[in-house]
C-alpha cells in the first residue's frame, strides 16, 4: 500500500498534549486535501488513514466528522465518505460570502490595526514582490510559487486578526481554506501575480489612511478578480485534461498496431 500521509509522532504529541489527538489528525487530513494528496472525489477509508497516520480509528472518525462540517469531505449514505469536489456553483457561493466578510474585515482593520501590524503588512508586500521576481526569472519556479502562496496566506491572516473579531477570523479562515487547493492554479494564471500584489497594495494603503470604506472596496475588488481568475484557470485546466484524455484514447494500442 502506498504511504502518502506522514505518521503522527505520538511521542511528540504526548509532550504537546494540550491539543487533542483528533485535532492533530484533522489538521493532517486537512493539509493533505489542501495539497491535493487526497484528491477531490477520492474515497476516504478510515482504516487506511488510521494505518498511515499510526493512530486508532476513533480520532480519524472524529476528524472526518469535523472535516464534513468544514466542507472538506462529504458523507454519502450507503456509499461512504469522499473528498469534496468543488463545482462552479460551490466556488461562486464561497466567494459571495467571503467577499462580504473580507469587506467587513478590512473595514474593521482600518479602525483597529496597530502600527506594528501595519509595518508587518508593508514588509510582506516587499517579500511577496521579491518572490514574484524569483518566479518570473525562473529561479526554482515551484519553490518561489510555494513561498508566494505561504506569504499571501500570512498577509491575509494578519489582516483578519487586525479586525479584532475572533468569530469573523474563524469564519473567513474556514471559507478561504476550502479554496486553498486551487490557490497555486489561480496564482499561476498569466498576470495574476502582479495584479494580486497591486490589489494588496491598494488594501494596505486604504488601511494605512484609516479609510474603512476604501479598504472595504479594495477587498471587494480583490475578491472579484480572484474569483474571475480562478474560474478562467479552471476552465483552461479542464480543457487541457479533456484534450489529453482524447489524445490518449486516440493513440493506437500495441494490439491495434
Q: Which parts are unreliable, with pLDDT below 50 for 5 consecutive residues or more?
A: none
Gyration radius, rounded: 21 Å
Number of helices: 11
**Would you report the number of β strands?**
3
Beta fraction of the residues?
under 5%
Encode the helix/strand succession as letters.
Answer: HHEHHEEHHHHHHH
Strand order across the largest sheet: 1-3-2
SS content category: mainly alpha
Largest sheet composition:
3 strands, antiparallel
Q: Per the principal axes of the C-alpha atoms, what is the gross shape?
A: globular
Helix content: over 70%
What's the overall average pLDDT, rounded? 89
Distance between the termini: 34 Å
Report on this structure:
This protein has 257 residues and is mainly α. It is built from 11 helices and 3 strands. It has helices spanning 10-15, 21-34, 46-53, 57-70, 88-112, 115-136, 141-162, 166-178, 183-187, 192-208, 212-250; strands spanning 43-44, 73-76, 80-83. A 3-stranded antiparallel β-sheet has the order 1-3-2. The radius of gyration is 21 Å and the shape is globular.
Amino acid at each position: 500500500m502506498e504511504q502518502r500521509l506522514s505518521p503522527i509522532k505520538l511521542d511528540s504529541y504526548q509532550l504537546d498534549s494540550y491539543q487533542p489527538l483528533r485535532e492533530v489528525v484533522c489538521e493532517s487530513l486537512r493539509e493533505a486535501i489542501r495539497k491535493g494528496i487526497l484528491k477531490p472525489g477520492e474515497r476516504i477509508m478510515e482504516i487506511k488513514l488510521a494505518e498511515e497516520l499510526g493512530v486508532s480509528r476513533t480520532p480519524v472518525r472524529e476528524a472526518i466528522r469535523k472535516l464534513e462540517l468544514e466542507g472538506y469531505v462529504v458523507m454519502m449514505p450507503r456509499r461512504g465518505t469522499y473528498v469534496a469536489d468543488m463545482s462552479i456553483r460551490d466556488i461562486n457561493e464561497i466567494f459571495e460570502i467571503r467577499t462580504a466578510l473580507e469587506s467587513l474585515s478590512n473595514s474593521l482593520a482600518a479602525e483597529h490595526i496597530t502600527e506594528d501590524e501595519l509595518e508587518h503588512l508593508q514588509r510582506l508586500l516587499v517579500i511577496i514582490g521579491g518572490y514574484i521576481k524569483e518566479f518570473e526569472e525562473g529561479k526554482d519556479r515551484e519553490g518561489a510559487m510555494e513561498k508566494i502562496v505561504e506569504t499571501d496566506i500570512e498577509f491575509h491572516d494578519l489582516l483578519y486578526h487586525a479586525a479584532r473579531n475572533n468569530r469573523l477570523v474563524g469564519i473567513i479562515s474556514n471559507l478561504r481554506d476550502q479554496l486553498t487547493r486551487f490557490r497555486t492554479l489561480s496564482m499561476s494564471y498569466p498576470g495574476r501575480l502582479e495584479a494580486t500584489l497591486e490589489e494588496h497594495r491598494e488594501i494596505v494603503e486604504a488601511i494605512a489612511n484609516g479609510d474603512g470604506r476604501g479598504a472595504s472596496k479594495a477587498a471587494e475588488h480583490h475578491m472579484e478578480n480572484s474569483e474571475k481568475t480562478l474560474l478562467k484557470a479552471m476552465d483552461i485546466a479542464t480543457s487541457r485534461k479533456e484534450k489529453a484524455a482524447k489524445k490518449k484514447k486516440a493513440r493506437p494500442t500495441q494490439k491495434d498496431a
